Amino acid sequence: MKNHIAPFLPGPLRKRIAPDWQPKPVVAVVRLSGVIGPSQPLRGGLNLAGVAGPLEAAFSAKGVKAVALLINSPGGSPVQSSLIYKRIRSLAEEKGLPVYAFAEDVAASGGYMIACAADEIYADESSILGSIGVVSAGFGFTGLIEKLGVERRVHTAGESKAMLDPFQPEKPEEVQRLEALQKDVHDYFKKLVSDARGDRLKSDDPELFSGAFWAGAGAVERGLADGIADLRSKMRDLFGKDVKLKLVVQRTPWWRPGGGVGASRVEGFFERFGAGFAGEIGDGLIAAAERRSLWSRFGL
Question: What are the Cα distances from residue 145, in Å, to 153, 162, 166, 172?
Answer without folding.
Answer: 12, 17, 11, 21
